[in-house]
């Protein structure tokens, strides 16, 4: 750090010092400086207690307790020339202890602080003033897991910075500030700079932390969905195999939103599908050649009356415009992730698949045989089955 000398149009280096070398102490000096000038940490903070020890069954004391403008509690831990190894764990403990403080607890803690520092001042009045003159009854304090941590020291050990950076990925609201004393002659200076996350990258790092946490939550949710689906499909297959159909005898449960069995024609399957909105049984026509799919669907549609009579009710016929595949289905509302729906969903889907297989098996075989014969006549060779 340098001092600008206007008269000589030059700069003069300030001598970097240590707190201990200057005779400064953590509690008597650094803590007092921050308590009296909390905006040195880059924002408006209201100090509500020093050396707070109001934790059940423990004699531990956190250095400074503050509130930010959003009503979140801020745990401020000061170390002088070295953080030590355990400052992160220490601060996390304090944050966990403070997470249970109610609005009235916080007001009482602040009142105790004011009774010592500003006798006769009411905590509720100063809290209202700090929160832009809102009525105390309308102020929200310490909501959910909004607690924040600020660590202040001249030097941060690698094990501390590594832990802090890792914690940021889990949306822990944690900042590190480097406090450095300087001297020039008899004059002393203090520089406080935020080093983690650096101020110009803080928004980016918060965004990355949120994404990382979302990814973790997505993985957990996906694992849960996969487990649920495998269990559901196990129920469906078991129920299907209790019918006279052998369609799903060799099929195992999967973790997708659908499972399928062959119809006897390549690329055309008899599928079960279950989502958060519906459960269904379908004939899914998805051969490599779009023309084959359109031909099969069209020929079956021409026999709609016969097929629906054998099915025992109406079916939904979907040419799926803009896609290669076509579909014939029976569908009902349901949610695979609500277990109370499973009995009715399984019953509907299995019954629909049993009747769908019976209704389309003969017509599909005849339609595909006609398609093969047509292809044979056109090309002089047997087409792929």
Automatic annotation (TrEMBL):
The lineage of its organism: Bacteria, Pseudomonadati, Pseudomonadota, Gammaproteobacteria, Pseudomonadales. InterPro entries: DUF4268, tRNA_endonuc-like_dom_sf. This is DUF4268 domain-containing protein. Pfam families: DUF4268. It comes from Marinobacter qingdaonensis. Residues 228-361 form the DUF4268 domain.
């Amino acid at each position: 750090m340098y001092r600008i000398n206007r008269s000589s149009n030059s700069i003069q280096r300030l001598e970097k010092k240590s707190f201990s070398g200057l005779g400064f102490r953590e509690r008597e000096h650094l803590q007092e400086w921050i308590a009296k000038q909390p905006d040195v940490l880059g924002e408006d903070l209201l100090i509500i207690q020093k050396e707070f020890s109001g934790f059940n069954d423990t004699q531990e004391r956190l250095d400074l307790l503050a509130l930010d403008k959003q009503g979140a509690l801020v745990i401020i831990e000061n170390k002088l020339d070295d953080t030590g190894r355990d400052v992160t764990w220490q601060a996390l403990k304090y944050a966990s202890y403070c997470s249970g403080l109610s609005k009235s607890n916080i007001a009482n803690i602040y009142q105790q602080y004011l009774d010592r520092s500003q006798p006769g001042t009411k905590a509720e009045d100063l809290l209202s003033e700090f929160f832009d003159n809102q009525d105390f009854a309308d102020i929200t304090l310490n909501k959910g897991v909004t607690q924040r941590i600020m660590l202040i020291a001249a030097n941060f050990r690698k094990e501390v910075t590594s832990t802090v950076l890792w914690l940021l990925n889990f949306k822990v609201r944690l900042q590190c500030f480097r406090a450095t004393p300087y001297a020039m002659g008899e004059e002393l200076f203090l520089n406080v700079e935020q080093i983690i996350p650096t101020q110009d990258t803080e928004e980016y790092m918060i965004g990355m932390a949120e994404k990382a946490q979302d990814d973790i939550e997505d993985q957990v949710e996906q694992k849960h969905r996969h487990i649920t689906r495998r269990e559901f499909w196990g129920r469906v297959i078991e129920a299907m195999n209790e019918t006279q159909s052998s369609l799903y005898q060799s099929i195992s449960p999967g973790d997708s939103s659908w499972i399928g069995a062959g119809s006897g024609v390549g690329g055309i399957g008899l599928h079960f599908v279950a989502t958060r909105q519906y459960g269904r049984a379908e004939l899914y026509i998805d051969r490599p050649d779009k023309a084959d799919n359109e031909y099969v669907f069209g020929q079956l549609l021409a026999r709609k009356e016969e097929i629906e009579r054998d099915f025992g009710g109406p079916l939904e016929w979907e040419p799926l415009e803009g896609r290669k595949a076509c579909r014939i289905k029976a569908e009902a509302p349901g949610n695979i992730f609500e277990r109370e729906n499973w009995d009715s969903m399984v019953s509907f889907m299995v019954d629909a698949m049993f009747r769908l297989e019976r209704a389309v098996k003969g017509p599909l075989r005849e339609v595909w045989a006609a398609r093969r014969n047509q292809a044979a006549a056109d090309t002089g060779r047997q087409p792929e089955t």
